[in-house]
Amino acid sequence: MSWQDFTRSHLLRINHHLDQYFLALPATAPRLASAMRHGTLIGGKRMRPLLVYAVGSLNGTPLAQLDDAAAAIELIHAYSLVHDDLPAMDDDDLRRGQPTCHVAYDEATAILAGDALQTEAFSLLANARGLNAEQRLALVATLAQASGYAGMCGGQALDLAATGATLSVDALIQVHRHKTGALIRAAVQMGAICANLPVAERDALDRYADAVGLAFQVHDDVLDETADTATLGKPQGSDKALNKSTFVAHLGIDGARDHARELVQQALHALAAIPYNTAILAALASYAIERTH
Length: 293
What we know:
The chain is mainly α. The protein has a single domain (3-290), classed as Farnesyl Diphosphate Synthase, CATH 1.10.600. Helix content is 71%, strand content 1%. The protein is built from 15 helices and 2 strands. It has helices at 3-23, 30-41, 47-56, 67-84, 101-104, 107-126, 133-147, 152-161, 169-179, 181-195, 199-226, 229-232, 238-241, 247-271, 279-290; strands at 94-95, 98-99. Helix 3 packs antiparallel against helix 4 (67-84) and helix 10 (181-195) packs antiparallel against helix 11. It is globular. The mean pLDDT is 93.
């Protein structure tokens, strides 16, 4: 399967799975359910679900056994964006070219939508279809570690604390290994759990994910400086406006691009230890630094 065919078919699959999940929610609080849908389905690259599918498919694991893990990690990502856009955080009005959740609805509803998306993710994993209890527990533990204090939330706290300060490159790497990289690594780990891949292969995949996650963030910093608001789908230059340390500030645009390419080479080197066809994972690594938004 080509990269284009893979992304087309798997984007349709994950978007359909998420849509069906929201449609099946009971009619308890329709406005809240609508805000949850808005925060999740108004667009997005779906890179984390794509990684779940790409890793889980390495040994031919049926896609139906990967759907719930892929959806769960996208719900966590969506919740993080809904909360990240709030006035208390980055105070953004635009996300994926659409009004952010607190603008389209209201701040209280956006907070509740993020909270609900987070808990729904773990409900999906606890009842994941086609997996045994050990796999479900491992998925819950992996996503909890990646999204909580030791992962994404901790990284967001570090990012907020650094606003207005000048971080060293090493400190900046630590922020983004937690804030962005933790969920990307979790996506790869979750695909491996669903596929029951051996430990040695999981270690190589973790090295791949670590490099891809950092490359993704370095390229984000480049896009924040070089792309326009319409292309980005969010305000251009928002990091600079918030006085945040970035890889571009340290390395310059060309230096940041070179660093991102070096990280992709590290990811590809890690894939060489995987005894399967890793062409899709290699294409995903390249996509991380070639995308326009």
